[in-house]
């Protein structure tokens, strides 16, 4: 380039910058998108598995129709044995209090679902950022370089790399929360099965 024209619109530096930046961005975006895609698949699979458990266990947090029927039948029997009993008051359903085990198990598993869905939502938001990062760049090398650098600085300012790196760790914490609930449930059902599962899990 001629002296004094090193930073002009048609200067070689902009072409070189664009070439190097495009190569860097293609590799970086591919790596980030692959990481996010993997995280989304794992989060979806885990959420589906835990949802299947929650569908069964959350029913223990509220009285079933069978429980209400049994309680009413008992009250009717008591009323028949004691004619002086106030039937209208005796037929009132008793207060239902779920067991502490059911509360802990469902609380942990609902926490997992909230955490997993939160991770997935953040991952989808970041993927939208990455798609917008390389879209709509002008054809002029100078303008393209300036706009690209502005967007790259924004990614650094918003700590995008740190967030992407944190998402798998957050999902791992969610899995530990689920396993804690599973352990509580298994020990409440059968100690032998719970110990076997723990021993099998410790191998891995």
From TrEMBL:
<feature type="transmembrane region" description="Helical">
    <location>
        <begin position="39"/>
        <end position="58"/>
    </location>
</feature>
<keyword id="KW-0472">Membrane</keyword>
<feature type="domain" description="DUF6535">
    <location>
        <begin position="14"/>
        <end position="188"/>
    </location>
</feature>
<keyword id="KW-0812">Transmembrane</keyword>
<dbReference type="Pfam" id="PF20153">
    <property type="entry name" value="DUF6535"/>
</dbReference>
<feature type="transmembrane region" description="Helical">
    <location>
        <begin position="103"/>
        <end position="126"/>
    </location>
</feature>
<protein>
    <recommendedName>
        <fullName>DUF6535 domain-containing protein</fullName>
    </recommendedName>
</protein>
<keyword id="KW-1133">Transmembrane helix</keyword>
<feature type="transmembrane region" description="Helical">
    <location>
        <begin position="163"/>
        <end position="187"/>
    </location>
</feature>
<dbReference type="InterPro" id="IPR045338">
    <property type="entry name" value="DUF6535"/>
</dbReference>
């Amino acid at each position: 380039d001629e002296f004094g024209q090193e930073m002009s619109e048609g200067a070689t530096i902009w072409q070189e910058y664009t070439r190097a930046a495009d190569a860097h961005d293609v590799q970086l975006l591919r790596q980030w998108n692959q990481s996010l895609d993997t995280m989304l698949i794992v989060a979806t699979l885990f959420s589906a598995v835990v949802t299947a458990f929650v569908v069964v266990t959350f029913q223990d947090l509220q009285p079933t129709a069978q429980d209400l029927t049994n309680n009413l039948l008992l009250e009717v029997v008591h009323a028949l044995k004691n004619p002086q009993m106030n039937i209208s008051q005796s037929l009132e359903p008793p207060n239902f209090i779920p067991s502490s085990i059911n509360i802990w198990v469902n609380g942990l598993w609902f926490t997992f679902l909230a955490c997993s869905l939160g991770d997935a939502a953040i991952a989808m938001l970041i993927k939208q950022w990455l798609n917008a990062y390389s879209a709509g760049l002008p054809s002029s090398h100078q303008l393209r370089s300036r706009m690209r650098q502005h967007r790259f600085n924004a990614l650094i300012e918003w700590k995008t790399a740190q967030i992407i790196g944190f998402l798998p760790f957050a999902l791992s914490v969610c899995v530990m929360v689920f396993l804690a609930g599973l352990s509580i449930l298994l020990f409440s059902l059968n100690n032998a099965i719970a110990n076997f599962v723990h021993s099998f899990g410790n191998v891995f």
